[in-house]
Amino acid sequence: MTTYIFFDDALRMLTNAFLLSAVLLIAASGIGLAVIETIEKTGER
Protein backbone atom coordinates (compact mmCIF):
# COMPACT_ATOMS: atom_id res chain seq x y z
CA MET A 1 0.00 0.00 0.00
CA THR A 2 1.87 3.04 -1.26
CA THR A 3 0.43 6.52 -1.15
CA TYR A 4 1.34 8.88 -3.94
CA ILE A 5 1.29 12.66 -3.89
CA PHE A 6 0.15 14.11 -7.16
CA PHE A 7 2.30 16.77 -8.77
CA ASP A 8 -0.35 19.47 -8.36
CA ASP A 9 -0.68 18.79 -4.64
CA ALA A 10 3.08 18.72 -4.14
CA LEU A 11 3.49 21.97 -6.06
CA ARG A 12 0.75 23.60 -4.00
CA MET A 13 2.39 22.47 -0.76
CA LEU A 14 5.79 23.76 -1.83
CA THR A 15 4.31 27.08 -2.92
CA ASN A 16 2.49 27.49 0.40
CA ALA A 17 5.65 26.62 2.33
CA PHE A 18 7.68 29.14 0.31
CA LEU A 19 5.17 31.93 0.78
CA LEU A 20 4.82 31.19 4.48
CA SER A 21 8.59 31.22 4.97
CA ALA A 22 8.88 34.53 3.08
CA VAL A 23 6.19 36.12 5.26
CA LEU A 24 7.81 34.82 8.44
CA LEU A 25 11.22 36.08 7.32
CA ILE A 26 9.86 39.57 6.63
CA ALA A 27 8.06 39.63 9.99
CA ALA A 28 11.14 38.43 11.88
CA SER A 29 13.37 41.01 10.20
CA GLY A 30 10.88 43.77 11.03
CA ILE A 31 10.80 42.71 14.68
CA GLY A 32 14.59 42.47 14.75
CA LEU A 33 15.00 45.93 13.26
CA ALA A 34 12.55 47.36 15.80
CA VAL A 35 14.50 45.76 18.66
CA ILE A 36 17.80 47.08 17.33
CA GLU A 37 16.35 50.55 16.91
CA THR A 38 15.04 50.49 20.48
CA ILE A 39 18.42 49.37 21.80
CA GLU A 40 20.19 52.15 19.89
CA LYS A 41 17.75 54.78 21.18
CA THR A 42 18.24 53.71 24.79
CA GLY A 43 22.01 53.69 24.34
CA GLU A 44 22.13 57.30 23.15
CA ARG A 45 20.66 58.72 26.35
Label this structure with key terms.
45 residues, mainly alpha, 0% strand
Summed over residues and divided by their number, the pLDDT gives a mean of 93
Q: Tell me roughly what share of residues is in helical segments.
A: over 70%
Poorly predicted runs are none
CA-based gyration radius: 20 Å
Bin the strand percentage. Answer: under 5%
Shape: rod-shaped
Oligomeric status? single chain
Question: How many DSSP H or I helices?
Answer: 1
Order of helices and strands: H
Q: How would you describe what is shown here?
A:
The chain has 45 residues and is mainly α. The chain has 1 helix and no strands. The longest helix has 38 residues. The protein is rod-shaped and about 65 Å long. The termini are far apart. The model has no long low-confidence stretch (mean pLDDT 93).
